[in-house]
């Protein structure tokens, strides 16, 4: 995949994932586990200036208390959250 093809793929991922954003945060990672179940808002999409292209799509999110973090699809996109949760439950 060329860099331009990867950028096009990421742009399509952003579009599709943003149709499926959850209302509360969840994470399979150890960082920010204390935030599980908290409501958040999307601040913006991250770009190649923020992270490497292979890490995208990612978003900057803000919790009600003002804390901002960068989030992966598996933390805020319903289909990805459910997929990860199902994997953990089926271990």
Describe this structure in words.
The structure is a single chain. The protein has 91 residues and is an alpha+beta fold. The protein has one domain (3-89). Helix content is 34%, strand content 16%. A three-stranded antiparallel sheet has the order 1-2-3.
Low-confidence parts = none
Query: What is the average of the pLDDT values?
Result: 95
Helix content: 25-40%
Strand order, biggest sheet? 1-2-3
> End-to-end span in angstroms?
33 Å
Q: Give the percentage of residues in beta strands.
A: 15-25%
SSE string, helices as H and strands as E: HEEEHH
Whole-number count of domains: 1
Quaternary structure type: single chain
> What is the gyration radius calculated from CA atoms?
14 Å
- The structure class reads alpha+beta
What form results from the Cα inertia axes?
globular
Number of helices: 3
Tell me the major beta sheet. Answer: 3 strands, antiparallel
Q: In total, how many beta strands?
A: 3
């Amino acid at each position: 995949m060329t860099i331009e093809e990867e950028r096009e793929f990421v742009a399509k991922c952003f579009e599709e994932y943003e149709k499926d954003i959850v209302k509360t945060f969840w994470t399979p990672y150890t960082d920010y586990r204390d935030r599980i179940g908290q409501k958040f808002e999307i601040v913006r999409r991250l770009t190649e200036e923020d992270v490497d292209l292979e890490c995208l799509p990612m978003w900057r999110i803000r919790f009600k208390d003002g804390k901002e973090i960068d989030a992966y699809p598996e933390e805020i996109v319903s289909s990805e959250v459910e997929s990860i949760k199902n994997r953990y439950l089926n271990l």
